Amino acid sequence: MIDVINLNKTYGKLDVLKGITTSIRQGEKIAIIGPSGSGKSTFLRCLNRMEEPTGGSIVFDGRDITDPKADIDEHRRQMGMVFQHFNLFNNKTVLENIMLAPVYLGLRDLRRLRRRNRLIRLRNLFGGGELPLHPIDTSAARIKAEARENALRLLKRIGLEDKADAYPSTLSGGQKQRIAIVRALAMNPKVLLFDEPTSALDPEMVGEVLDLIRQLADEGMTMVIVTHEMGFAREVATRVLFMDGGQILEDDAPERIFSDPRHPRTREFLSKVL
Amino acid sequence: MGNFDKKLERFWEVFIEHGGYVKVLTGLQNTVWIAVAGLAIGILIGTLIAIIRVAPKSGVLSRALDGLCVFYVGLFRGTPIVVQLLVAYYVMLPLIGVNIPALQVCVIVFGLNSGAYVSEIMRGGILSVDPGQMEAGRALGLNYRVTMLKIVVPQAVKNIVPTLGNEFITLIKETSVVSFVGAADLYVAFNYIGSNNYEFMVPYLIMALIYIALVAIAALIIRQLERSLRKSDRRH
Predict the structure, then answer these.
(1) Which end of chain A is less enclosed by CB atoms within 10 A, N or C?
(2) Contact call for residues A51 and A259 (beta carbons, < 8 A)
(3) Global pTM?
(4) How far apart are CA A17 and CA A28, in angstroms?
(5) Per-residue pLDDT tens for A213-235?
(6) A91, A166, A168 member nearest B151 (Cβ)
């Protein structure tokens, strides 16, 4: 689904990523582990071009998204991202947070379709042609109602439907992160990217967020998770990448990496964190 | 104090019988109008400039626009508002060859002037919003413009309401120079009343009190606005 080919990222003279090549297949749950500054987060953020790669390419569903002409917004809609610091929209209620992007994009697509139909009608009128119109089987009200229904369903799933009209500042970190996850889900993404989703949480809230991620994994969601939760990586991931110094040093099944690491750096790292 | 009573009496005479109150009301209306409309234009221009200035400077166009904005802000912050009024009314208008009433010219000049100040306030406001907010919007597939307008700017505005209120109060007070181009504000009204019998003490005193009252009302409105905007911070 995602092919990363010789990905490079430099900040000035600093090489953060040095030629990363890997593939992410549908349904895989990939945990990226490694010491701080190893480039894990930068790698993850390059996948949806939150960071601009300085070399190499990323092919998502057969299209090179590092191509300057690629519509990156279109790709990002299919790649949900969850941040360490949740980044819920502070000026929006929980429900609005979840509905905002689906409603905006739905309405925009509707406007585009209507505009195109107007043009076709005009052309038919003056050119005498009989070009077919694009079928429109929705309306602005329906787009909003459906987004709302979907948002409420997602909130119910995480047991926070009573928080629908609350503002993010009134929520706990665990609640915020779970809402951030369903906000990404509301776009029906093909893959979810998690950037240290539990690192900013109080210890007692880590469990509820990991539980939700585990559920999504069990349902078959493709995901890439940068994490320091080794137990979780071992349990949920289907593949673990160990990164250090801007390179993938080891890429293997979790059982192998955690019980029998090949690379001395992996061994050293795991002996410190486990 | 008998002297003061006499002055008050004379003022009252001109105020009521010689139609002074009409002038004062017109002046009050113009003063408030210039300040309010000026701030509204200022917020529009200021937001636009601020967004241009914080946008990533990738191409030639964005860099040229940025330069233009820097020039604009420098121009309007670098000259006194009286000079801007005089240049607009006595230099620009005759050069272009159009005839616009003094009041409208004042509204426009105050708007342009305020735009320069508001742009800096707004820029600070936008930069104070957590960059994560922009990232979250972009990661959902919203483009830069939409994320800016729906997420970042509303939060920036909330942060800068107190500073914008300051700007509004400054504007109210600065309008007292519009008589330089012949617009009729509070000063013109009270000057008229005083000139009627060369008794300036009471008119100017009352003028000062009206300005204080205006600013107090403005401060009250700003505080209410702040309170209602803080809705999303309240725990409920």
Answers:
(1) C
(2) no
(3) 0.83
(4) 22
(5) 999 999 999 999 999 999 999 99
(6) A91
